[in-house]
Structure formats: C-alpha cells, structure tokens
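Exercise: predict the fold of this chain.
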Amino acid sequence: MMSPNPIEQLIKRLSRLPGLGPRSARRAALHLINYRDGQMVPLAEDMLAVAHAIRRCTECGNLDMTSRCGICQDNARDQKRLCIVEDVADLWAMERAAVFSGRYHVLGGVLSAIDGVGPDTLRLDYLVERTKTEQIEEVILALSATVDGQATAHYIADKMTGINARITRLAHGVPVGGELDYLDDGTLAQAMKARQQF
C-alpha cells in the first residue's frame, strides 16, 4: 500500500480548518510550499510550540500558558461580575472590544440534543457552584442569539434561581442567529452597554 502524498495530506488537513474549503486549502498549501523557509517552517514551529505550551484555564476555561489564565489572576478586574460565553473565541471578541472588565466563564459549547451536548458536558453545575462560592453579584449571559444559545441562556437562568446574583443578557443589538466572534467592536460594545435583566 502506497503512503499518501504529503501535499495531498496537507491540503486535506488545511481543508478541515474553519473557513477553508478544498480550493482555499489548495491555494494555502501551495503558498506555504512556495515560501517554505520564510513561512511554512516558522508556522510549523509555532504550531508545535503552541500545541505543547497552551493549557485550558482550570477556573474559567480560557486558553493560556498557565493552569490559571492571566484574566483570572488579574486582581484589578471586577471580581463580582461574571460573563458567560460559549467559547474562547467569544471571550477574545469581548476582550478585543474592551467592553468588560470582570471575569469569564467559558462553557465550551451550548446545549444541543442533536449534537449530544448536555448540562454535564458544559460543566453547568460547576458554574452554579462558582457563582455561589465567589459571591458573584451579576452573571452576564453573553451567548449567541441562536436557538441553542438562547435555550442554554434560559437553562442557566433557571439553574441560578435562588442565587443572590442579578442575571442579565446582552441587548438585542446582537443579531438573531449571530455569533459574537463575527460582530464588529461597536455592535458588541453597544450590546454590552444595553444589557437587560434576563
């Protein structure tokens, strides 16, 4: 049995990345091959370094080089406000827009019966416990305005019943069906300022 062609393997792997189909992957692979010393080799080295160095924060779920990320270690941040996001890309979008100075909780997805994602997968019991133990005063539900995102927001709000924390959500400036990572900074800033009681 012949071993697979390395160029075809590279194209196949690149085409699995978000936003890259087979044609884009082919163009990217060709570009990397043509500039292998200046781009391909350094990229491969960077990817290997990241693969070995990056960890998931044990407290919030962010990505960093330590087991407790820089945001969770920053005592200057508002310790009484917790922003719930679907994934790390959403956390990065919030930080890029500089609209929130509290701490985060990354769910790692949203509830979805079709995809087999339930409350245990998202560590929702840990979220409720964290809200109690850290005496959080406001929980901001910054989840995508998709059906699954809003179902997850309602589920979290129900789980928080009886906890002395104000539950808010982003204002409806976030378009229905929209995802935070794709919003411009102005829309995200306005949505954060106009958040409402959930």
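Check your answer against the key: The two ends are 60 Å apart (CA to CA).
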